[in-house]
Write a structure and sequence with these properties.
The chain folds into 2 domains: about 140 residues, PAS domain (Beta-Lactamase), CATH 3.30.450; about 180 residues, Histidine kinase-like ATPase, C-terminal domain (Heat Shock Protein 90, 2-Layer Sandwich), CATH 3.30.565. The protein has about 350 residues and is an alpha+beta fold. The relative contact order is 0.08. The chain contains 11 helices and 13 strands. The protein starts with a helix and ends with a strand. It is rod-shaped. A hairpin with a 5-residue loop joins strand 4 and strand 5. The longest helix has about 35 residues. Helix 7 runs antiparallel to helix 8, helix 7 packs parallel to helix 10 and helix 10 runs antiparallel to helix 11. Its EC number is 2.7.13.3. It comes from Rhizobium acidisoli. GO terms for molecular function: ATP binding; photoreceptor activity; protein histidine kinase activity.
C-alpha cells in the first residue's frame, strides 16, 4: 500500500477496543489478517483485472500455491472445469456494482483437488468514495458438504429401508392371514415355505444391491425347485423393481407348488411352459403360465388357498389381474401386472 493510497484510506474502527488497542489497531489488524485461520486476500480495484496484492498464510495453505504464484493474479485462477458460471456471473456483477456478495463456489487447489469455497467479497472505498480494494474471505465448505451429502444419503437409505420393510411385512401378513389354518402342522409348514420363497427373492435382491431383477431370473429362482427339467421358459429381458419382485416371487411360488401338488408337475407326462412379454405400451409385463398333460379341470369349484394368495398378491398388492382357463389338457393362467417401475430391454 503506497503512502498516497494510505492518505485516502482509513479503516473501519473496531466494534470494541481499549484506548491502547485502538492506538495499535493498524498493527493488530495486520497481525489478525496474517494469523487468522480464515483464508483471506485483498485485490487492487484500481488496476486492470483486480490483481491480488495481499494473501495470508491460510489462503496459501488452502490453495497449495506459493506467494509468488498468487500475487499479481486475478482470483479466477482458482476456477476449474466444474465451476458454476452462474456463481462466477454473480461475483462479476457484485464487483461491477461495487457491493458485497456471498457466494458458494467450486474452486480448485494447485494440485487439481476441488473444494467448495464460501466466498465473501467486500469493497473497500477511499475517503473520496472511490473504490480502492476488494477484500475476500473464504471458508472451505468441502467437509460440510460431504457430511451434508452423507446425511441426505443416509436419510434416503432409511426411508428406503422403511418402505421395503413395510412392503415385506405386508406380504408376510397376507401369508399368515390367507394360509389354511385348519391343521396346525400344515399351517406352519405352508407359512414356512412361503416365507422361504420370499426370503429367496430377498436374498437375490440383496446380492444385486437392490437393483432391478429380470423376470426370467425370478421365474427360475422359484420354479426350478419343483421343475428343474420340465419347464420351458421364454420371453424378453424385462426388469422388475424391488417392490414388485417380492410379491411376484410369492405368486410364482404358489403357482409352482400348485402345479407340483395338483397340476402338470404332479404327473409324469405333465409339461410346464412359462412365457412373458411387456404389457401395453411396454408398461409392466404379462405372464403366461401354461400347464399341459394334467387332464381336465377338477370338479370342485372351491378356490384353494394358493389361488387366494395369488389373487391377493396380483390384484390387491400389484393392482394387476389374473385369468384362469381350464381346457381338456390342462390349465392356463394369464397374469398382467401394470408398470410399477418395470422396464423392458
Amino acid at each position: 500500500m503506497t503512502s498516497n493510497s494510505t492518505k485516502k484510506l482509513h479503516g473501519d474502527l473496531p466494534s470494541a477496543s481499549t484506548k491502547a488497542a485502538l492506538a495499535d489497531r493498524k498493527e493488530l489488524a495486520a497481525v489478525a489478517f496474517e494469523r487468522t485461520r480464515m483464508p483471506m486476500v485483498v485485490t487492487d480495484a484500481r488496476k486492470p483485472d483486480l490483481p491480488i496484492v495481499l494473501a495470508n498464510k491460510s489462503f496459501l495453505e488452502l490453495t497449495g500455491y506459493a506467494a509468488e504464484e498468487v500475487l499479481g493474479r486475478n482470483c479466477r485462477f482458482l476456477q476449474g472445469p466444474a465451476t458454476s458460471p452462474i456463481a462466477v456471473a454473480e461475483i462479476r456483477a457484485a464487483i461491477a456494482e461495487e457491493r458485497e456478495v456471498g457466494v458458494e463456489i467450486l474452486n480448485y487447489k494447485k494440485n487439481g483437488e476441488p473444494f467448495w469455497n464460501r466466498l465473501h467479497l467486500s469493497p473497500v472505498h477511499g475517503d473520496d468514495g472511490r473504490i480502492l480494494y476488494f477484500f475476500g474471505s473464504q471458508i472451505d465448505m468441502t467437509e460440510y458438504r460431504r457430511v451434508e451429502a452423507l446425511e441426505a444419503s443416509e436419510h434416503r437409505l432409511l426411508m428406503e429401508v422403511d418402505h421395503r420393510s413395510k412392503n415385506v411385512l405386508a406380504i408376510v401378513d397376507s401369508i399368515v392371514r390367507l394360509s389354511n389354518s385348519d391343521d396346525p402342522a400344515l399351517y406352519a409348514a405352508a407359512i414356512q415355505h412361503r416365507v422361504q420363497a420370499l426370503a429367496r427373492a430377498h436374498n437375490l435382491l440383496a446380492e444385486r444391491g437392490w437393483a432391478n431383477i429380470s423376470v426370467e431370473e425370478l421365474v427360475q429362482l422359484q420354479v426350478t425347485p419343483f421343475a428343474a427339467t420340465r419347464a420351458a421358459l421364454s420371453g424378453p429381458d424385462i426388469r422388475l423393481p424391488a417392490t414388485v419382485v417380492q410379491p411376484v416371487a410369492l405368486v410364482l411360488h404358489e403357482l409352482a407348488v400348485n402345479a407340483a401338488r395338483h397340476g402338470a408337475l404332479a404327473v409324469p407326462q405333465g409339461r410346464l411352459s412359462i412365457s412373458w412379454m411387456p404389457g401395453p405400451s411396454d408398461a409392466g409385463f404379462r405372464l403366461r403360465w401354461q400347464e399341459a398333460g394334467a387332464g381336465p379341470a377338477p370338479r370342485s369349484t372351491k378356490r384353494g388357498f394358493g389361488t387366494v394368495i395369488v389373487g391377493a398378491m396380483v390384484e390387491k398388492q400389484l393392482k394387476g389381474r389374473v385369468e384362469k382357463t381350464w381346457s381338456d389338457d390342462g390349465l392356463l393362467i394369464e397374469i398382467e401386472v401394470p408398470s410399477a417401475g418395470s422396464t423392458a430391454r
